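Case study B.
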Amino acid sequence: MTVYKASAGSGKTFTLAAQYISIVMYEALTRGNYKAFEHIVAMTFTVKATKEMKDRILSYLYDLSQGRNDKSFMGFKQKLSELLLLQYDKMHNNQDRNIYNHKAGKTDSDIVVKTDIMAEETQEKVRMCAREILKAILNNYARFNVTTIDSFFQSVLQGVLYELGMPAEQQLLLDETDIHNKSVDRMVNNLCDDAEGRAILNPILDFAKDSLEENKSGWDIRKELKKAANKLGEEVYKFHAEAIEKESGDGKYDELRKRLYAKRAEIRSEVEIRCGSMMQRALEKKAGSKSPISVIGTAARDMQKLVWKGPNKTIQKVLDGEISGDGIYHDFIDLYKLYVDKSRLLNTIQIVLPHLYTITLLTNIERNMRDIQRENMQMLLSSANMLLRDLLSGDARSFVYSKVGPRLEHLLIDEFQDTSQMQWNNLEPLVEELRSEDKHSVIVGDIKQSIYRFRNGKWKLLSDVADRDGFVSLSDNFRSTRAVVETNNELFPRLASEMDGILEENGYGSNYLSPVYEKNVEVHQNVNKEGGNVRFYMYSKKGGEEAEERLRIDFCEQIKAIRRQISESGKSGSIAILVRTKDEGERVLEWLQGDEELRGVSVETEDSYQLGASETLQVLVAMLRYVEEGDKCKREKSIYGQYIEDVLGEEVRNELEDSREYWLSHPLYEMNDRLIKHFGLGQRGENEYVEKYLSCLKAYLMSEISTAYNLKSLLEKWDTVMCELKVNKTPDKDALTLMTIHKSKGLAFDYVLVPLFDSTMNKEIRSKTTLLWDTQTLADDEDGLKDMLQTVSVLSVSSERGKTSQSLWSEPYKEEVRLRFMDALNSVYVAFTRAKEAYYCWCAYSPEPKTTDTDSIGTPMLKALSRIGMEKEEREGGEIVFTSERELVEVVKEKESYVERLNITDNAKRHPIVAPMYTGEETLPIEIVNSNKALQLFRDVQNDTEEIWEQKNYIESGLIYHSLFENLMTLNDEDVQKAIDKYRLNNELDARHEMTFRRFVEAARSHKVLQEVFSKDAQTLTEASFIVTTEEGVETLRPDRVVLTGGRAIVTDYKFSSYKNLMLNDEKHTEQRRKYYEQLTKYVEMTQRFYKIPAEGWLWFLRDNELINVTKLNK
Amino acid sequence: METFLSKVAGRLTEEFGNDMHKVIVVFPNKRIGLFLNKALAKNNGGEPLLAPQYRTIDELFESYSDKVVADPVTTVCMTYQAYVEAGLSYTMPLDDFYGWGELMVRDFNEIDQQLVPADQLFQNAKDIEEIDTRFFPDTFDSKTESVLNQFRGTEYAKKQLKRWLELWTKMPLIYHRLNELLASARVESGFALAYKGALQREVIEQGKVVAKEGYRYVFVGFNVLTETEKALMEALKDVAMFINDDAEEDNRPEISIIQATTDIQQAEYVHTWIEENMRNGRIREDRLTHTAVVLADEGLLLPVISSFPPIKTNITMGYPMAQTPLLSYINSLRAKFNEEMPDGMTEEYLQYVIDSLRERMHEGPADRQMPYFYHLMDEALARALFETDKLLQNIRTGQLSSIQGLTLPLVQRILVRMLACHSIAFHGEPAQGLQVMGVLETRSLDFDNLLVLSANEGVLPKNERAKSMIPYVVRQHYHLADEEKKVMIYSNNFFRLFRRAKHIDIVYSMYNASGEAEESRFIRQMLALKDWDVRYSKLVPSASVPVERDQQAFAKTGDIVEQMITKTLSPSALNTYMNCPRSYYYSQVKGLKKEEDISEDLQINQIGELFHKAAELFYSRYGDKAITAEMLDNDKTVEIEKATQGAFDELIYGKKPELETTPGFLLVVRGVLNELMLRLVEMDKKVTPFRIFSLEKEYYCDVDIDGKRLRIGGRIDRVDLLSDNKLRIVDYKAGSKEKSEKAAYSSLGELCNMDVYKQCQHYQVQLLFYSYVLHRIYPDKQVEPALCFPLSSREQGYYPRVRYVGKDGKLADIGTYEVVREDFEAQFESLLRDEIYKEGRSFVSPWDKEREREESFYEKADSTRCRYCDFRSLCGIGKAKEY
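Model:
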């Protein structure tokens, strides 16, 4: 297995694609097997990355198959060649494992000859193999397994649903939030006030009071509950879900609550009694107020404060034994020790008690969640992962995999640092198996870019694997300029060690961040990228408003300078402003708005292209609401009506008012579409919004079939989901991008600005939260508190520096702090490595830093910067600017690592087709075939008399009799029965119809001409089609029966309408008659033309048993 | 270029002359006949000829059998019966089984159509698990189980494996029993049932395929065949002719690959494409049939129809029933039925649906203005009635009458699913006009111009994960590759179109509903494996100029001011004005109102209302008695509970009695309300003894504005008479601590300054407003305004009062009104005179000012006062964001 540690911009996708191709190519070159790809699974983290990976692999293969040989492709071929040689070596086992550290064995001519794809003589074979592989992949694309981890396990799960006892059409849900919300709603709606209900109601009330007290969002308890429900998504909860449920059901948490209260009282009274007596004793000594005895007496009054703040000089001396003589000092030391010891316990109880109800709450929400999933045949992907775990870890694994697809032999995993424990639990056995079989797998990741801990990402997994198996560093940076790369190379190890220093000084452990940053930042320069610029503006926290103002000005000036630079160079350049939170984004926006020049520059934020921001859609939605509202709201009071009037004018409102009914009778899609067209909403310059909206509407209509959708639920959907969806718009070239660091991962910009660096990073470190902790991580104690707490599996714990760090949970707390430091530093890394050309950073520092200050990154930043040899300039007001600028050397860039044929997106850009929305109201004149008369049937089923039945349904009956007669050869009884049987073969036959049919046959026997028509000797055509070309085009004619007999043809058509009526001489019936005759005449003429014999035509009115010889009539 | 069908026509005429009525042409799908007829006619020079008969291959099979293909519901239900009879140790309820039943039937179908020895396959499927756990083949031996555990993974995994093993052990039983059950069932006409595969297999294995005397068979356009199909053709080969379309043609169409952003953009492109191609002569009015719009995603039909220009068109696909309002209506009946007949059974449900549909039908025609929709609904209704009735009959007396486990939810699901499969045909002359069709419908047809939409991976070809219960390895072994075959058929069919076309435009979307979308593998194949010239394009929206909206002047005319003055000015109206004159205009002048509805989901203001009511009820009990601390202590529990109950009775249950039985969230509200009341009482204890001077009483006074009399005032929550004879104005705020803090941040001089007016400032202004009124009424009494946040009552040093930022920048208590009276009166009266009631000013929203400054960032308004404004949409502000 190969583990790559890939720093930002080091060509990760390139490497993975090369690895992938090397595996399939090796098989192809050595064994002529082009289908090795079926046994590879490549996993990425996002759908987007999946597509990129596919594009890359296919493009490289294509280039190989085309024998591409230009310089920029050589890099890839070189890489591939190395990898192939490595595989060859491995197969032949004659190289040592650390080959990567050598210059891949190129001198060994023996090997080169075998498979070196660079060699002239192998070119043809390489081309052929690449082509065959490409063919194999494209012809069996479903087995081209480049997928997200989630969808990989999804497909595995699909294979074992039966065994899990689940319905087959289980729908997997990726997003947990939605179902959390529904569960909370359901829980709350079903609350009741009986004994049983109290068990749920009470924790909610506790929760409600708490959140009111902390005042997160006032009265909106539901919202707070929904936020709290997010904890269900944490793995520590999921891993223990079953146990928690049981413990909660068994009342363990309630029991624990009582025991903790008792314990607290017990400890308190024990300590307080001793403190009290200590105070008493000190008082009795009647010493002077400044004397040590009085000091310890006062201290005993509030031991908690003493322990928390640390002893003052006098007390320290007492504790150190420097002040002694009186027994009271000795006792004080004992008391102090006792207190320290007990305060650990008290703290532990203190951080647990207020949140005990949380777990009960969570289990209740979870129960509702399960019910909802069950009812809707849905399953959360994370639950699915839990279910799979047991199946995939035992011997059943190979069984499971063999069920779903070809044998897995190679795994390629990207962004491994973001893998969660749960995913890894399911993957690891497979990885291990492949490893033991010595199959080649590849893991790529970068701890430094792990910033998704809040989504359960666990970088430790990567470091464990790398520690065990060794790793290869991808050390070339292809993204950034020299200035950016070199600064980062120097800065990060330094900053890591400074931050480590803070951790160490505060007792949180040592040497935590440095190993990650020292080993990995050996990024080499990519020669194509000289030049560049990095600048840090450090301003003093003491600078007050002035400093703040300077920051704003510096920031705006910097942007202007970059924009000038870009426009002077005549090229385009992207500028990104990175922040930590949305709030900060708003602050930055205010700055920009405050600047004369920048005010006019458009800023693209994460919300920029939201559908809700489109006025066109707003007015459309207002129309929908106005229509839906009906008369519920008095016309003149309707806000929506007013809005429509404001935007489109009074006439539109009036028109809509008058046509509510009309619009309401449209199906939903048409209602929207036609409102848009009718009121010209597609011509307002917001087509992208309108189209996106209609797309969502279409998806909504398709997906909500199973639930009743209607206008009201559509509007709800708009409010809750649709209005926040975004238009997929190509960003404006001149715009500034404003986004959070988390969102920026995986992207690159020419210029990056990080304006609120310190507050940004500090938030990462400081945020006070409650965490779910496994009780197994508790430290030992002598008072049995640990045992008491371990009667349950998981507790919700408030994590705060004071209490938590001095509790039985101090170790997990320290680990949490360390992890936060890592998160913070990683965010910095991600932010600074987004820059291609240059980056700029603004950071406040404290001029007189305290060593205990773990909250500020300004201090370590300043120290780090001062030590890495950047150019330093001190400005007034305590501002310090560090700059690192490299000279620009023009180098011709070689773009395009693969050829263009497969790159649709870039090609397509060059040929835009302007596609306006259809604005005409006249659309396709479509009609619904009114074929089904069933409605008629149902409509009259109440007054179902024989007569009406017959009358109304002569058409249906006509069809039945037609096919009966079609099967009827002659009029004798045997053939009649045959016809009836044959009909029954495919249809049901009503007894009434059978009787009628027999009656018709009887009638036929009385006509001579019909005897001829149904005679054995005649050559008969039933329901045959004549095709003839007429002026109108091709016409198909289907006379009911044509017989050739006695040198002539007889054409017969059956009619089931009333003969008597037809013979009436009113206008309608005359016309009808004319049509009948005309049609039959056509038949006759055609028969004559076709058979070239004379023909006659007959109309047979079965109901009245009348025959008309139309041919005679015509004459 | 000669089309495939004209070739076929040529061959047929050559072979059979012009009388083909004894020729049976077998196609993959039936409607091709219409097109072939046309080709035949053309071939025959317009002279009449007798057309051949057309059959699909399935019809041909059925004609050889004395069985009929059972409908899917019956087949699955019978599979369930067989499954139950097999006696597995774990049997799913039919609800859960239904999907598995479908899969089993699908597998059985495939096994039979491929003529695979079924029993052997089942044995192998069972074995694969055993092979893998070769160490302990006997998994059912309970004695060894504990030993096994350590080797076989967890107990859990074992249980699953056992299920699997057992199922496949019993699978032969299920398979054969299903066939028996179907064969012994009789439809009314007396025929036995079978599923499709079994029927075909039987026909083949029993050698029933015989040529009809005197008839000849022609198989046209088949490429990928099942074993039964092959056998059928083999049996008829002496009297059959085979015409396949697999010759490579040396045709080089002009191909474009076009990128779209959304699928709607694709649909919208259709009209541009047609117009453009008509203009450049590719599409000719007289040759419309030679052009086709191919929809890989059938869901795109409605959007395409909606933006199709009015030209002669034939749509081969029907209007999907699933997208008619009728299906949604039927769906909505589910909930209604469950509500109206909580104990209702399946038959009652179906009857209920039928009755409801009938009732709807009797409502008569909708708007005759729209015959299209009218007919659509008509047809949908008829179809639904028909199908529902059929299902009901089947359950009552038909094949399903013996099936156990057809629960109500399952039947509801089945019904909707069944109906959703239907589509309603459009009227059209099939062989005329521009063609709109699905991919499979293009089989055997050829076109000059093609527009293929939704050429996305997962859509073209359709993404149907290999759905089967048979393990992959076993499938491989028996060459069961249903999915691959489907893809092959799809692929053949798609690339066949390139052989004779002149222009092909293929459009795909870069995004779908769930995010990034991938181009179809067919596009990739085309680019990577074929050296065709391809043009790449991208659809961009037309650059239309945004319509400038007429910004209306919200000027304060004399009339409006008159109108304003006739109304009493309350503190909340004042606050509305201070916050945003525009919203004052909308609510007070125009009288716009948001529709209110009381639901269990209480709104924030309703909770406040409840609290006010509870406090009123609680204190009204004391009359004008002096209230002491002891009294309050005594009443803390029971009386508070009573007061909250009273508030609920009056404000909630009084209006919606049914909520009493389903309290839900209200219970939480009550709990919290009690807590709030408790805190209020605790707080009030500190000012005892006091008397209640008034509760929820309205106070008014008049003010002169430029000679006009304005009435101001409002309802004051509570006025206390303190022991020092002061009047204490108590105003409850059920809201948050944060707000109580923020409420104090204005300085005295800025209280009535609209430009600096802050969100929480109205608390201060409101209290002073009341003080102003009360002072006018009782000029000789001291007035003390008390802003009361019960939520904050337990904070250290909290005391209900009104604060402001003093001249020194520090917070100061107002104490008695007297202290600020002069300042406030001057400001307040000037506000009324010079701003609010000033003619000629306008109702400017602070939003306007912000909007002036920034164009792109709409969200900002959310963080401030617009967030909860009812009229936000009138200003063009989107929905409030959640943070």
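Residues 970 and 1014 of chain A are 5 Å apart (CA to CA). The remaining cases will be described in the next quarterly update.
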